[in-house]
Amino acid sequence: MENLPSILTPDLGLLFWMLLAFLVVFFVVAKFGFPAIIDMVENRKRYIDESLQKAHEASERLANIQKEGESMLQEARQKQAQLLKEAAETRDAIVSQAQEKAREEGARLLSEAKAEIESQKQAAISEIRAQVAELSVKVAEKILRKELSSEAKQMETIDRLLDEISVEDKK
């Protein structure tokens, strides 16, 4: 065993100095190194926690935005349906008004046509009556001329007419 190098079998002095160096290095690392490392780890942990919190908040905001978007879309659909319904009602009202005006106009034109036909009918009847009266007078005139061509016939006709008038007055 005497052949072994001294590093593998340290003596007591070397062990003391190694222990002293270790304690100094440990003290320096414990005093200055560990707090810096712990600080960096804590900062990193805080940064990760904040990033996770921000990601969670962003996720919640995104979910809220999606909900708002869906509600806005639903509201837009409802407004569109309402507008379409109102447009259909307006169209129906306009069509109904137009039909009513057309009926009224048709009825007015029909009544005007009936009135025109009635007035033309009355005018035609009046004209026919006038023509019939004129023809009757002409026929009567011709008959009277023929019958009253002689004085004897005239006297006979006058007597007959007077007899008829007196008979009618007695009734």
Largest sheet, in brief, is: none
- Mean pLDDT across the residues is 88
SSE string, helix = H, strand = E? HH
Give the percentage of residues in beta strands.
Answer: under 5%
Number of strands: 0
Rounded to the nearest angstrom, the radius of gyration is 67 Å
List keywords for this structure.
mainly alpha, rod-shaped, 0% strand, 171 residues
In words, what does this structure look like?
The chain has 2 helices and no strands. The longest helix has 136 residues, at 12-147. The mean pLDDT is 88. The chain is mostly helical and 171 residues long.
Quick overview:
The protein is mainly α and 171 residues long. It has two helices and no strands.
Topology:
Blueprint lengths: L11 H136 L3 H20 L1
